[in-house]
């Protein structure tokens, strides 16, 4: 029982840490030009410190902005000794790999243009076809 309580407390601590990251990013970059999706075990009680990583997907229509943001995020987590897996959401080709981040409830901005929602649906459709 104590293990579950501690795991929940640690998960909440990591979520609060993401709020710190969100504030840092808002100070450095215009939040109306990108969104960052956090998914995977980092935001759950299944995260194992020192073993698991944080999964992050970045969407922006400006690839140079993506490079700056991803570098900042990588350095941010590196300082905290947290392994990170950061990738770009390329809406030119629907793929199942984008489904998890685009369905994540942990998004660091409100930037979610209609084209991204259409892309999310297309990715979900591809995923559904592969699992049938």
Could you explain how this protein is built, in words?
This protein is α+β, with helices and mostly antiparallel strands. The chain has a four-stranded mixed β-sheet. It is built from four helices and four strands, in the order H-E-E-H-E-H-E-H. The chain has helices at residues 2-28, 63-79, 99-103, 114-131; strands spanning 34-39, 54-60, 84-88, 106-107. The chain has a single domain (2-131), classed as Beta Polymerase, domain 2. The model has no long low-confidence stretch (mean pLDDT 94). The chain is globular, with a radius of gyration of 15 Å. 51% of the residues lie in helices and 15% in strands.
What is the CATH-assigned architecture? 2-Layer Sandwich
Q: Low-confidence stretches at least 5 residues in length (pLDDT < 50)? A: none
Going by helix content, strand content and strand pairing, the class is alpha+beta
Succession of helices and strands: HEEHEHEH
Count of the domains? 1
β-sheet strand percentage: 15-25%
CATH topology: Beta Polymerase, domain 2
Q: What helical percentage do the residues reach? A: 40-55%
Total strands: the figure is 4
How are the strands of the largest sheet arranged?
3-2-1-4
**Overall outline:** globular
Question: What is the CATH class?
Answer: Alpha Beta
Q: Distance N terminus to C terminus?
A: 38 Å
Strand count, sense and barrel status of the largest sheet are: 4 strands, mixed
Using the CA coordinates, give the radius of gyration.
15 Å
Q: List the total number of helices.
A: 4
Oligomer state of the chains in this structure: single chain
Mean pLDDT: 94
């Amino acid at each position: 029982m104590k293990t579950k309580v501690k795991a929940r407390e640690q998960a909440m601590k990591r979520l609060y840490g993401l709020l710190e990251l969100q504030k840092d990013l808002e100070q450095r970059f215009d939040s109306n030009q990108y969104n960052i999706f956090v998914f995977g075990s980092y935001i759950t009680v299944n995260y194992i410190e020192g073993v698991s990583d944080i999964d992050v997907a970045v969407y922006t229509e400006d690839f140079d902005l993506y490079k700056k943001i991803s570098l900042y995020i990588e350095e941010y987590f590196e300082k905290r000794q947290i392994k990170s897996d950061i990738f770009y959401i390329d809406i030119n080709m629907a793929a199942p790999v984008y489904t998890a981040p685009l369905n994540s409830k942990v998004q660091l901005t409100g930037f979610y243009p209609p084209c991204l929602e259409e892309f999310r649906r297309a990715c979900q459709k591809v995923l559904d076809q592969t699992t049938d």
